[in-house]
Amino acid sequence: MRRLLLALPFALLPLAIAHADDTTVKHGSLGTHEHGTARVNAALDDQTLALELQTPAMNIVGFEHLATTDADKAAVAKARALLEKPLALFGLPAAAGCSVTSQHLQSPLFGDAMPDDDGDDDHDQHAAGEEHHHSEIHASYALTCTAPDKLKALDTAQLFKTFPATHKVVVQLIGPTGQKGLDATPDNSALSF
Fold first, then answer.
1. Is the distance from CB of 114 to CB of 107 less than 8 angstroms?
2. Is-annotated flag, keyword Nucleotidyltransferase (predicted)?
3. How many other β-carbons are positioned within 10 Å of the β-carbon of residue 136?
4. 23 Cβ partners below 8 Å, 6+ apart?
5. pLDDT in tens, 53-108
6. Which of 35, 23, 24, 89 has its CA nearest to residue 62?
């Protein structure tokens, strides 16, 4: 029941969708597939912090095709290892006493099947003779924080440093003071709880 309560705000949370441009492609649960842009949803309820990251794979590994070369496979393995460290990626202070209670990483690059938004398997691109896949990486984390009052901000600065192809992170946060949002950039990367 508690997981449902934490997930419900995200189901109801209106995500601002940027105006479409040449790099934006409608796809899956991201709403838009925009290279350089990621989305982070965060909810703090008592001592439980839920985090969700959705991003085009291009932002994380530099490509969206399945890894076939040794270099591509190494890039995917490195990215996965970095994504498995949410405490570092989201700048959570040690004083908050947060520990990861569960995490789930999903992407076609990790061997997971991802649902196709319209079911046509990029039909228009195949019909035009193009082979282009839009792979995303979804990461969800549940953390328990023994001193949640020490969580002053969710900082995406390390996310930008770790994955430099990410230029903007659309952050939606639900915390003790209500719902907030920020289009985070490397120069403006923190949103207070």
1. yes
2. no
3. 24
4. 34, 35, 36
5. 999 999 999 999 999 999 999 999 999 999 999 999 998 999 999 999 999 999 99
6. 35
Structure tokens belonging to residue 15: 């995500």
* pLDDT less than 70: residues of the chain: 1-32, 113-133
Quote helix, strand, coil % in the chain, to nearest 5: 30, 35, 35
Q: Say what the pTM is.
A: 0.76
How many angstroms separate the CA atoms of 155 and 135, rounded?
A: 25
DSSP H or E segment with residue 140: strand 136-145
User: Tokens at residue 39, please?
Assistant: 């989305």
Query: Can you give the length of the chain in residues?
Result: 193
Q: What tokens does 28 get?
A: 């899956």
User: What per-residue confidence (pLDDT) applies to 136?
Assistant: 95
Distance CA 66, CA 176 (A): 41
